[in-house]
Design a protein that fits this description.
Structural class: mainly alpha
Strand content: under 5%
Helix content: 55-70%
Low-confidence stretches: 185-189
Mean pLDDT: 81
Number of helices: 8
Amino acid sequence: MLETLATIDARVLVWILSLPHPEWLDWLMTAASAIGQRAAIWLALGAVLAAWSRLTWMAYWQVVLSIILVFLVVEATLKPAIARPRPSTDPAVTALTTTTPPPSAAFPSGHAATAVAGAYALARVLPAARLALWLLAAGIALSRLYLGAHYPLDVAAGALVGFACAALSVGGTVWYSRDPAGRISQEPR
């Protein structure tokens, strides 16, 4: 069963990599992957917004806490325990990519996990920016497939882990933005 799933996963990635890759999209996906590295975009975006009083420092702390939890779950626990090889070990994938693979294991995708965690935590306190935040997260996660750095299931699992970590970190707290329109309801859920 797992072998069949891995075969399907690899075939889907090969299909994605065989699609046209125009130069402008190569640049965009490389940039999306780069800004998603180490969750820097989410930490920087949150810090700038907190400094500009668009969200409270306690709300920013929840973003940081979400990212820390993702790191502990993904990088310190799941990747070493599962140790799934990167797609670059598959000759069919290597022939279609030009990027150098990261040294860590593939499953789950850390980029996807931090992107979803960052978007979730920030979107809760900045509902007006929700669409832009989720589009940025989707771009970062999809860039990992486009560049051949992860299999589709790596990205999907990373997104689920990121969502779970952010939901756990943010929980039912009532930290909210200073903008009254962006406040989270304090009513019981």
